[in-house]
Amino acid sequence: MEDGTYSPDQVKDDATMHTVITDDGVSWDGDLSGAMSSDDYELQSIRFGAAEAYGMYKLTQDEMASVRPGSRPEYLARDSWAYYSLDRPFVPDQIVEAKCADGSWIRVATVSYKTKAPVVTLAAGVNGVSVGGAKSNTLTFAADSDYTGFRITSDARVKVTDVNGDPVLLEKGQRVLLGALETNVAPTIRIKANSAKTVQRVQEAMKESADPILNVENVARGETSCNGNVEWGGFWTSERATTGRLAGLRDF
Description:
Layout (H helix, E strand, L loop, with lengths): L15 E13 L12 E18 L4 E3 L8 E3 L4 E5 L8 E6 L5 E8 L6 E4 L6 E4 L5 E4 L7 E9 L19 E15 L4 H13 L4 E14 L2 E15 L9
Antiparallel strand pairs: 1-11, 1-13, 2-5, 2-10, 2-12, 3-4, 6-7, 6-11, 7-8, 9-10, 13-14
């Protein structure tokens, strides 16, 4: 809906934005042959930070506005789409699932952003998972729980409404659409030092250097759909260097 070909009035009242973020790909050095399994690593924790929702509206005149979520205002022409930050209660609840060693998924928690800090609530009947952290915003997974990834899903109406269900209107009468959701999540994994793949990688690295560095690559994917139609998809890669304390294959 960002190309300006839609009017807020053309969006159906029941249109829903469905967002899925999946993080379950970990490998050594970005090498497909080095892809890790539950034999090699497991989730240790997931920390949830601030989240934000952005409204999207059509300009009725030339003015300074943000062309992207969170961007600095710039000069935009009439009928362009612009973004602004919505109040925190407009961020939908998020369902958190963990990936089991057999590839299945289990719901472990719900995260709410209706207050200043995220509120993490455990799902009923989940074993080996607890809520902790200085702000009680961290899911902690017990050792040997063998969860290897997580998935976060949320659903929100595209037409933004207030607590009474009435449409949110700007001062010039424009309807507001839900244009973007921003979530901050920091996962931590525990590498199993005695797995065959870990031992092999470490031994190879130690043959090449007295002070070896091993890189661990993490790939996450995101997809947003509106009433079943995919509007956006993508993936992100982050690389972390695992350094030091390699002798003996312990505690690294």
